[in-house]
Amino acid sequence: MSTVPAAVVQPLSAACLHAVHGAYAAGLIAPVIIGDRRRLESLAANSGIALPDWIFHDTGSDEAAADLAASLAAAGDVSLVIKGNIKTDILMRAVLRRRGTSGEGGRLSHVFAIDMPSVGYHKRLYVTDGALNVSPSVDVKEIIANNAIDLLQSLGIQRPKIAVLSAAETINSAMPSSVEAAEVAERIQARALALGPVALDVALSSNAASVKGIDSPVAGDADLLVCPNIESANGLVKMAARQPGTVIAGLVIGGTYPIVLPSRGDAQRSQLASCGLGRKYLAWLQYNDRRR
Fold it and tell me: Does Acyltransferase show up as a keyword for this record (predicted)?
């Protein structure tokens, strides 16, 4: 993969700056730093990080930094955006304003990618949507799932195994998430092996599936969890983050460019993993764009 210009918005923590420097050193990105240059240079000096000859845009506020990053991305001057120490809502408001002005369609959604060696799950697990879509309808959940399928296919998982979560495996009208999970699973079957409604234990444990009498290739082997709402997805990921050795990457997808969106408190490894995930997804977007 070639090096691409990336707008890095307010990288004002040592973990974030180390991750950006690591992505630069690996040839993934050419950073375009947007934010408070004085604070950044002080942080770099105190952290022992040598700043290469990067492009800097000195801005006076988080809002101004977010607006500039969104403008550069919309104009094609940068190929992806990396969130630093700025609130998600400030950055995403700027992105959405710029998308509205440009007429760009499609719903954005967020995916977490989780490696949990201490828990013993046998592969990387993807979770959506724990950051953007608060209480999605069935139609929105279908879009969220299809965005995530695009991401997984960009990583070589052509027919991912998807668990659409609820609290149980039976449809219950008193539990709307179970009704919606069944419908979403049915709608995405053409692109994935989908099971829903399904509880978390069955999605991740073949033993739990056996005890409950659930026979599905998804049970105990899910690639992706589609959660009922933002609270359940975010809480699940925050619990995973507390396990030793866990690495979590975060990415906004569904638009014309990826937005690397880790949590501000993420460790350097997780922030670097987010950059790598964003670069891989961008390569897939660019490949498909060339084929059109």
Answer: yes
Distance CA 120, CA 100 (A): 43
Strands laid side by side in the 4-9 sheet: 55-58, 29-35, 4-9, 80-83, 259-260, 247-253, 109-115, 125-128, 224-226, 161-165, 193-198
Enumerate helices (H) and strands (E) in the chain, giving the number of each.
10, 11
- Show the domains of the chain with their CATH numbers: 1-104 (3.40.50.10950), 107-254 (3.40.718.10)
- pLDDT one-digit tens code per residue, 97-117: 998 655 566 899 999 999 998
pLDDT at position 101 is 53
Q: With pLDDT > 70 as the criterion, what percentage of the chain qualifies? A: 96
Rounded to two decimals, what is the model's pTM? 0.94
